Amino acid sequence: MSYICIMLNNTDKTKITTTLSNTLGSFSVLRGNELAFYCPFCHHHKQKLQVNTETQHWHCWTCNSGGKKLTSLLKKLDVDRKTIAVIREIYGDSHYNPQNEDGDAKIFISLPKEFISLAEQPKGFNPEYKQAMNYLIQRGITEKQIVKYGIGYCKEGLYSRRVIIPSYNCDGSLNYFVSRSYYVDEKMKYKNPPISKNVICFDSQINWNEPIILCEGVFDAITIRRNAIPLLGKFPSKTLVDKIFMNGVSDIVISLDNDAKTEALKASEYFRKQGINVKFMNLKDKDAADMGYNKFYEELNNTKEFGIEELLLTKINSL
């Protein structure tokens, strides 16, 4: 196996090391140009992610995630494009091919090792289990949904005192998870894994032959129940858009929060131009999770198919 190395000056070495440490946290210096970090994919308690700043190769010795370009690692960790461009320039990657770079990385994400399923009632006194269950009940989530989505919690570790909502690909492999504090006084409500959101959340729950509903967060999707895909933000990911077209989805409902109206309109217009029937739910003050199942579908049933008239009216009303 051949390795392409590049002689780095001290300034470039500092830029690379700073970028990696800002993204991955503390590190240890190994032999030569090897650095060891805590792996953001498997969360091992030791620094098992090894990065070579000369060859650019990176590899976790626990979960086997790895790649041949540092930029592929940074992309998976959602580092901004400007920073990635700087790193790419340092290594002289002038013939940039995004498809080759994306295919270079192999990611094997796992749930936190402290993860405990909420479907299993603990023996004895367990206040964290009780707090987690009370939080979910208050949000209208049932025991059946806890089992369906494989929801759990962590009593300790990086994601302590949080419920964990996993997401799986259509093949059953984990592709993301959301962690949400179940204590109201916690300042950081969400603490999610530092990896790219270019995934299809709840892919394993979706029937692509039926209409799909695009919503913002996992609690919205759980409330909606049927064929709902949380965007984990305001925009559909590239992976999601590709799969929509690949499966020939003919009907889409877009139901984003009120603060994402502009993005929702753009997505509605985009899919409509591709020949897909779209319903744009112009939610006012509440998202699906706040509305509840019955109110959401009442609103959906009163929503007309999105067309030029609805586009103009929505834009006028938003002025």
Write structural notes for this entry:
- The chain is α+β, with helices and mostly antiparallel strands.
- It has three domains: 95 residues, DNA Primase, Chain A (Alpha-Beta Complex); 84 residues, DNA primase, catalytic core, N-terminal domain (DNA primase DNAg catalytic core, N-terminal domain, Alpha-Beta Complex); 124 residues, Dna Topoisomerase Vi A Subunit, Chain: A, domain 2 (3-Layer(aba) Sandwich), CATH 3.40.1360.10.
- It is built from twelve helices and 13 strands.
- A five-stranded antiparallel sheet has the order 1-2-3-4-5, with helices on one face.
- The chain is globular, with a radius of gyration of 22 Å.
- The mean pLDDT is 88.
Short précis:
The chain has 319 residues and is of the alpha+beta class.
Number of separate structural domains: 3
Output the CATH topology of the largest domain. Dna Topoisomerase Vi A Subunit, Chain: A, domain 2
> What is the ordering of alpha helices and beta strands?
HEEEEEHHHEHHEEEEHEHEHEHHH
Got a strand count? Answer: 13
Q: Level of helix content?
A: 25-40%
Global Rg? 22 Å
Shape-level CATH architecture of the largest domain: 3-Layer(aba) Sandwich
Search tags:
4-stranded antiparallel sheet, 13 strands, DNA primase DNAg catalytic core, N-terminal domain, DNA Primase, Chain A, 3 domains, 5-stranded antiparallel sheet, single chain
